[in-house]
Design goal:
alpha/beta; five-stranded parallel beta sheet; globular
Length: 230
């Protein structure tokens, strides 16, 4: 059973999200509270959802302790912000996702499922647009064309097929690692892949190339980089 911890100052929101998750996400149990001090760091959680207003250096230190004891735990920020910079700040700080609090129930459930499956989650509206500079022309492969990728995602697809990490892709394309995470998350969603390893094999198969994927993917470290509340 997946234990999901929800930390939010508003009891009505906590209650609503708990009822939704326990009714729609199989084998899940939600524990919730207004502050992280109410919970033990050595408790095992599959996912921790934290309202952006609760984020502080003390909470980040607490999360670091949770991660050290349970590296498989996933962490995500919940916020009403629609600012790209806020999303990138969360990903750069080590969070595995950014969940918009005003999105539909179905999108929220997609976020929970993606995060529990090991994916990075960002709102669809963030990954739909392109950024920085034009990407490569879309490939002629019909199956790939059906994915309706942006130019940047088209560039990233063969690099994922090669088994590159987000950091390696960012260096290769000269973009921020947070930006890479956003597009990689969109690609995993488009491919229907449960994790990066599966995505690498699916991408290589779609491209029909000699690109060889590997299994170098490891759990991301939860790195504290001084995220400030939004």
């Amino acid at each position: 059973m997946s234990v999901i911890l929800v930390i939010d100052e508003h009891s009505v929101y906590r209650s609503g999200i708990r009822q939704l998750i326990e009714a729609r996400v199989q084998r899940s149990r939600v524990v919730e509270g207004s502050k992280f001090e109410d919970f033990a760091a050595n408790q095992h959680y599959g996912l921790i959802l934290i309202d952006s207003g609760c984020v502080s250096h003390r909470l980040l230190d607490w999360l670091k302790g949770v991660h050290e004891r349970s590296p498989e735990t996933r962490f995500a920020v919940m916020s009403t912000s629609t600012t790209r910079a806020d999303v990138l700040s969360c990903l750069s700080a080590g969070f595995h996702g950014f969940v918009h609090k005003l999105q539909s129930d179905e999108d929220l459930l997609t976020a929970i499922t993606d995060l529990l499956s090991g994916r990075i989650y960002v709102p669809r509206w963030l990954a739909d647009g392109d950024d920085e500079r034009p990407g490569l022309a879309p490939p002629t492969n019909t199956q790939v064309e059906r994915l309706k990728l942006t130019g940047r995602q088209t560039e990233i697809l063969p690099l994922i097929a090669q088994g590159m990490s987000n950091k390696e892709i960012a260096l290769q394309l000269n973009i921020a690692e947070g930006t890479t995470k956003i597009h990689a998350a969109a690609l995993l969603r488009a491919l229907g892949a449960r994790n990066r390893t599966e995505a690498a094999f699916m991408a290589a198969k779609l491209l029909g190339s000699s690109v060889r994927s590997d299994t170098r993917f490891k759990n991301e470290r939860f790195v504290i980089k001084g995220l400030s509340p939004s």
